[in-house]
Amino acid sequence: MGQQRFDKIKRFLHFNDNSEVYQRKATLVEDDIEPDLGVGGNIVLRLISTLPEKMNYKIYFDNWFSGLKLMSLLKIKGFPCIGTLNKARLKGCPLLKDSEMKKRERGTSDSGLTFIPALL
């Protein structure tokens, strides 16, 4: 990647914490206040723990960190978020099958709703 391309991408990077190193113990919840959301979800919660709630900070993450429970908890805390979801984490959300999506035009999207039980 060239320096100019890197500089263009870097403009959109707003939050990064390289001090968080993955360790197996990261799956543990440090207090009983938050639900255990797995390694990725717990890391996101720890990284945003210093941000004030309901100040419209937007959280972006990829499918390794995302999950419906995490997204629901962030909404409750006042953090709008967006991320890709792994198929295994959809919890029965009715979406088009891969074979059906492949038949459609590039850029096609699908959406659906699912119920997430209370977290706390």
What does this structure look like?
The chain is mainly α and 120 residues long. It has one domain. It contains four helices and two strands; from the N terminus they run ααβαβα. It has a two-stranded parallel sheet with strand order 1-2. Strand 1, helix 3 and strand 2 form a beta-alpha-beta unit. The longest helix has 11 residues. About 7% of the residues have low confidence.
Percent helix: 25-40%
Proportion of β residues? 5-15%
Total number of beta strands = 2
The structure class reads mainly alpha
Largest sheet: 2 strands, parallel
Rg result: 17 Å
Cα-to-Cα separation, first versus last residue: 44 Å
Q: Describe the strand arrangement of the main beta sheet, using strand numbers.
A: 1-2
Average pLDDT rating: 77
The figure for the number of domains is 1
Low-confidence stretches: 21-28
Write down the secondary-structure element order: HHEHEH
Q: Count the DSSP helices.
A: 4
Shape: flat
Keywords:
120 residues; mainly alpha; two-stranded parallel sheet; 5% strand; flat; PiggyBac transposable element-derived protein domain-containing protein; PGBD
Topology:
Layout: H1 3-10, H2 38-48, E1 59-61, H3 68-77, E2 81-83, H4 98-103
Summarize the entry for a quick read.
This is PiggyBac transposable element-derived protein domain-containing protein. Helix content is 29%, strand content 5%.
